[in-house]
Amino acid sequence: GQGEGRDAAATPGKGRKLTNIQKIQLVQQTINEQIRPALRAHGGNIELIDVEGNKVIVAFRGMCAQCRLTEVTMKDVVEAKLREFVSEELFVEEDNDSAQEPHNHRG
User: Residues 83-97: what's their mean pLDDT?
Assistant: First the structure.
């Protein structure tokens, strides 16, 4: 059938099955467009570390990393945005290792 490709494209976001690549790209896009500007306004930043299935691993940088209170709130905000724009099954986990040890990259 030739019609099925068009139908899938006509339904953005909700209801269609995302491939892993599509999911990761959408997560990245949502972070870039929805989340990072809000964090930058408060002197912080966010880094997408990994996406494993429905688990999105992020690290907070700058002021957000220091402030335990905003961190919890920011995680909720990130999760809500990703569920709104990408998939309702997503949940956010923090990458505490990279937040505490920024210089552990070997190279």
Answer: 91
